Amino acid sequence: MTFSSKLLLFGEHTILRGSAALALPLPLFSGKWAYTTPENAPALQRNLADWCQYLAEQQSKGALETELDLARFREDLEASLYFDSNIPNGYGAGSSGALCAALYARYALHPIEHKDAARYPELKRVLGQMESFFHGSSSGTDPLIVYLNQPVLLQADGSIQTLEVPDWPNETSGFQFFLLDTGIQRSTAPWVNLFLERCNEAVYLQNIQQEMIPLTAQAIAAFCAGDWTTLFEGWANISALQQVHFAPMIPESFQALWAEGLKSGHFALKLCGAGGGGFLLGMGRTGHVPPGAIILT
């Protein structure tokens, strides 16, 4: 079984202040369990044995709300099991989320079924407990999207809804989605903390609540309706606001390109997750995306 990376399409940071967020699987990158030779195992397994030990300790003291067959996981590691993944680390693409989803799918003794929507908040919490080994704390959002392998609408009140969404826009639609690789690995926590600190400023918080959150809601609605023209207009408006309010999160080497897209009207960039590096997410008119863009199809 293969586990895709994930893409946070809308709601970066603003979900922390009352907006919805839309995330979906990104098959461009993926990972799966595989076996290697014993001599290659130490390099490929990285910290899987440490993670197994951590989970065993959490499970023994009742800090995991699920039961994992960690004895079998340990035996499989000794038999040179590893997670074969091309999901880039430090890019917000869900590299650790895919690993958690894969472990849960393989080793959970009583897994929550994909169709059991009423238990999605519980599943998200459980997966967050597993992912906390990698981040210190985790909301569980990334592994949830990967595990369900469906577009997910996340509300600030904690409700979770899977969606049927239209196909990506293609050349004939007049628009394209794309990724730009900044070449910068980053950690999520510092940028989230910066956003939360800025929200202590009354004017800043007002701008987020009265401008960016409504635009995010409108963009999600346009995307779900497949209304690419309306979405592109909203995307450019979000891009312009992020240029002002999220400026420190935009890598300096991409700020000129960000401004160029808005000025030309050919494309618009936005953060892809927390910012500070990783990928930038763009929407552009067909044939007018920046050089080096990874077109999402």
Helix-strand blueprint:
Elements: E1 3-10, E2 21-35, H1 41-45, H2 48-60, H3 70-78, E3 81-85, H4 95-107, H5 120-135, H6 141-148, E4 152-154, E5 160-162, E6 175-181, H7 188-198, H8 202-225, H9 228-245, H10 255-264, E7 267-271, E8 279-285, E9 294-296
Antiparallel strand pairs: 1-2, 2-3, 2-4, 4-5, 6-8, 6-9, 7-8
Helix pairs in contact: 2-3, 4-5, 4-6, 8-9, 9-10
- Helix proportion of residues, in percent? 40-55%
Rg to the nearest angstrom?
20 Å
SSE class: alpha+beta
Number of strands: 9
| Poorly predicted parts | none
Shape: globular
- Most strands sheet: 5 strands, antiparallel
Structural overview:
- By secondary structure, the chain is α+β, with helices and mostly antiparallel strands.
- Helices cover 43% and strands 19% of the residues.
- It has helices at residues 41-45, 48-60, 70-78, 95-107, 120-135, 141-148, 188-198, 202-225, 228-245, 255-264; strands at residues 3-10, 21-35, 81-85, 152-154, 160-162, 175-181, 267-271, 279-285, 294-296.
- Strands 1, 2, 3, 4 and 5 form a 5-stranded antiparallel β-sheet that branches. Strands 7-8-6-9 form a 4-stranded antiparallel β-sheet.
- A hairpin with a 7-residue loop joins β7 and β8.
- α2 (48-60) packs antiparallel against α3.
- It is globular, with a radius of gyration of 20 Å.
- The relative contact order is 0.16.
- The model has no long low-confidence stretch (mean pLDDT 94).
